[in-house]
Amino acid sequence: MADMTLTATPALEGYDRTIGTMRLAERTSLSLVSMAIPLDGEGRAATAVRKHLHAELPPATGSTLSSDGSCRIIQTAADQYMAIFEHHNDAFTDLLTNALDGAVYVTDQSDVWVGLSLTGPDAVDALERLCPIDLHDSNFPVGASARTVMEHMGTIILRTGQHDYLLLSARSSAGSFLHAVETSVRYTQP
Amino acid sequence: MIINHPLLGPRDAAEFVIKGDASLIDRPDWQIENAAEAFHEYLFLRDNPAGEHRELWYHEQGDRSWLVVTRNTLTHEVTRVEMARDVARKARA
Amino acid sequence: MTHRIDGGLIDRSQTLKFTFNGKRMDGHPGDTLASALLANGQRLVGRSFKYHRPRGIFSAGSEEPNALVQLRTRAAQEPNTRATMAELFDGLSATSQNHRGSLEFDLMAINDMMSPFLSAGFYYKTFMWPAKFWEKLYEPVIRASAGLGRLSGREDPDVYDHGFLHCDVLVIGAGPAGLSAALAAGRAGARVILADEDFRLGGRLNAETYEVDGMPGADWAAQTVAELQAMDNVRLLPRTTVYGAYDHGIYGALERMTDHLPDAGGKPRQVLWRIYSRHAILCAGATERSMAFGNNDRPGVMLAGAVRTYANRFGVTPGKQVAVFTNNDDGWRTAHDLSARGVRVTAVIDSRAGVTHTLDGARIETGSAIVDTKGRKGLNWITLPNGIRIEADCLAVSGGWSPNVHLTCHQRGRPVWRDDLAAFVPGADLPVGMRVAGAANGDMTLAAALKTGRETANTVAKDLGLTPSRKAAPKAEDEPSDITAFWHVGGTKSRAWVDLQNDVTTKDIKQSHQEGFRSVEHLKRYTTLGMATDQGKTANVLGLAILAEASGKTIPETGTTIFRPPYTPVPIGAFAGRARGKDFRPTRLTPSHKWASENGASFVETGMWMRAEWFTRPGEKGWRDSVDREVEMTRNSVGICDVTTLGKIDIQGRDAAEFLNRIYSNAFAKLPVGKVRYGLMLREDGYAYDDGTTARLSETHFVMTTTTANAVLVFRNMEFARQCLWPDLDVHLISTTDGWAQFAVAGPNSRRLLEKVVDDFDLSNDAFPFMACAELTICGSTSARLFRISFSGELAYELAVPARFGDSLIRVLMEAGEEFDAVPYGLEALGVMRIEKGHAAGNELNGQTTAAQLGLGRMVSKKKDSIGSVLSERSEMNRDDDLRLVGFRPADREARLDAGAHFFTKGDTPSLETDQGWMTSVAYSPSLGHSIGLGFIKRGDQRMGEIVRAHDPIRDKDTEVEIVSPHFIDPEGERQRG
């Protein structure tokens, strides 16, 4: 029997820094769960998600928030969504799998991604050095999400507030991704 | 170049990977009599039109949809973008 | 500052110090390097490309052909910078270029005397023979004299960046038309970007004395800029050149962010923007051109519009005695403006007869021309056709204005000729979404520019569903703008320059035509007219006109060369952006990376991944020592290797099994839950593509691994199959490569080690046999996946935990393994063990080999449809005498084998005809004590025991090798099943 326990190491060791007016921080406590919709199962999936996550399935470029605000859902592919939980729980995937009972196919993505939050009035100035998506209010209001590429790295960008963005990118290249975002912030801060 | 994704709206072509002729959707039946010839034609023989061309693009840095993009090879004008899955389903129906 | 005059848009309260060729000079904020040089009386600023003729500042903008200088020093030195575009800053250091010796006494000026030998096409004619002179003499000499400025040869210390901008309306150029357009679009509520290459917005408004809305043009420009700046929906980009028009409303723009600052403060020098626009309004204005006459290239000969720019905008007169030569009304404005500022104008020569303009105190010659000029390093006087000489240290020349149509042509549009303007204007075939206004469209007067800018923007606003503003349009007068085309002055023996940058004369153009280079594109290549940094902005139309004359055609019949991006030069560094050095591409790290670097690992890049190749222990002299030890210790006890880089794909759905059955060439539909199977993928053409193992976690849930190299491609192709080939299957793919830290635990003690880690899980052979898989928990509570698979051939497992626990898990495994002397092993030892076991990898699965060649032919099921199954049955791919993957060992066990060697039957002479195959992978096998290899050889499976030659012409080696089974170790597989 094992008498050793494993400890979790955040991809960026909990990076959290303020640069000028901007704060850039690793989100170490997120749970990310992919939910794929079975063929012709949209209705059942939407019902199950509404019942168990207390949220609607969002449109392609938006996101929805659960009624208690603890879970945000974005669409990641034509037949796939991702639930983003504010607080990590190792058992989420199992709980969801059981609760949703085959209405969606669940895949834990928490460790696939690294999460960075970028907060501050100059966020868009920094992001326009990286992000090909139009982040103007008219195109990317609070709640909008997109999956795109930044400095050759696949990225999910989610606008969580007027000046708040959540960026998700691959965990293995977390260091390169942080470097890219941090460089953009440094370059655009006076 | 910009591809107007049917679900996501206009996206830079840099997010996409091109595969080639949309006829690759029409994969032959493996059990027909001249299957080898049919597959040979399917895989290796292509039209190379100067003008409108239907081609497959993959939104790799996006939602990983395969799209059928109708593009004019002379002007780069994109006249139509469809979800390849819908095209494939229609072709089978 | 000997040449400063009153007025101008410079800040005289501050003085900026700079040097030119080491000479200290002063200027003011608002100056360009060019205006400051002129203010200091510096007429000679460079030497011409071919003949090393003395040259001075010719223009006041980005069209400058002559005044190319090197800015800054040491590693930051930048050659071929236009002095007319360089914003002056305190401490700027500039040097002239393209001379040997000093600027004043250039040794290469001898070329000018040799000019009869250096005319058009000399390069193609002169160095033809004798052939052996080429390498030793001609090329070194040409190389030494080619080019303009010099690179520092050091790494660029500056940083560059890229960025993305979006707008409804991109207005290109902030002259009267552009400001008017931006104002109208901005007032209507559109998202506007207004870009201009200048640091001060306003274009010609800053250079002229016209009034707008009853105030000086420059004041109106400043007021308009202030209004635009206050609008949230308008973004101003000064110092930004829109250099290219690309597909679908995308424009390339270069913003010079910190070039004008003494110290960039770590910020990017320049940012290359990709601008996505719904509409674009090109308001790029027009560029003045010269006329060709004898010795028209001396320092002091300038464009007339530039001369008055220096006077009106910069408070500088380029000369104390200025003459004007014009074929149009605009040239007269220079005479009037200078005169009004107290500069002596000695003469105005107008090629048109019957012109009634006058100017007090100046000699007026109409219907006349200039035939020659004098002055060794700067203009002293000009000569009229009747032999009269007129003193002038500056000659302002206006041959008319050419609309800047360049961006209208970047999508294959061709400009059209307008006789009334003697100029090309944009054609009908514009880039999608582009409109043109102002002088760029041939609306040459101020009032017309203001009007068309506004009207165009209002049209665009309506297209966008916006309501144009009702605010009054800016008002201005139409200035006189008559022109009668006049290109060059004949009847002179002196050379008359057309392209100043490339030293192309009227004679060169005529000669090119005589020698058969009659198309404009040929003319360009043969004479170099219109090439290099200025792309002939002041020369092309003149060159065309002279070619047209020589060929007896009209100018429209002669046509133009194609305009391509960039409009003005863009530094390579700006294109590279941040993608330099270690930032060239992302780096991927495995979860055990930190631990590995603490434990002597040496890393190797495999794709983007950094992987441990071996772990050096104290006392080990070379990599082989480490690798041999890692293999031996693994085979004798237990070794641990991070295999996280393998692609992992989560596959779920009711039809997941059926889908896999169609993706893999071997059967998968009936794989039981809790089992893993090796799978071989083919390409549709029947060749082997990728391999890996796939585990079935539940009826509807599989986990696939792919090779590291193909992870992205396999996923892409599986999505293609899912969406395009079999859209009616219920199956979903999610990449989880980064989500799991996965370790191979291999060796006879692997089970005993893992037993210390797992929570209440029976690892016995009966409960968890070879090719079993399970989801379980380890170390108390952490969920994990365990696969009993073996790449090494040993009793082995792969254990996966969520990536966040990867660092912790490697430490726990090593601690738990201490009693077994567990060893970490790297990529090399992994490679050695797979070769010992005869497993194919990238060297064998190289995209050109078949399942049959790999010895996996029987795996390919003929009872089902899968990708590649039909074409894999082609007869040529299934010949009995085809290549087969087998093992090789040296006949002399001491010999070392080499990958890449080709096999020949003993006694055959090596040749393509006798070639029998090649060695793909080799290793020293510590288990066997000699070199071993894998390779393809014809009929290999039927030639066991035969000795053949492994011939390596590159390393000049010839080794006798014996064909053996590829399974060097434990061919029956007893260890991995034990």
Features:
heterotrimer, A: 190 residues, alpha+beta, Gyrase A, domain 2, Alpha-Beta Plaits, 2 domains, six-stranded antiparallel β-sheet, five-stranded antiparallel β-sheet, 4 helices, 11 strands, globular, B: 93 residues, Folate-binding fold, four-stranded antiparallel β-sheet, two-stranded antiparallel sheet, 2 helices
- The helix/strand class of chain A is alpha+beta
CATH classification, class level of the largest domain in chain A: Alpha Beta
Counted by DSSP, the helix tally of chain A is 4
Distance between the termini of chain A: 57 Å
Radius of gyration of chain C: 38 Å
CATH architecture tag of the largest domain in chain A:
2-Layer Sandwich
Would you report the number of β strands of chain A?
A: 11
State the CATH superfamily name of the largest domain in chain A: Probable tRNA modification gtpase trme, domain 1
Mean pLDDT over all positions of chain C: 94
Q: Number of helical runs of chain C?
A: 22
Tally of distinct domains of chain A: 2
Number of strands of chain C: 50
Task: Tell me about the largest β-sheet of chain A.
Answer: 6 strands, antiparallel
Q: What's the SSE pattern of chain A?
A: EEEHEEEHEEHEEEH
Oligomer: heterotrimer
Shape of chain C: elongated
* Structural class by helix and strand composition of chain C: alpha+beta
- Label the overall shape of chain A: globular
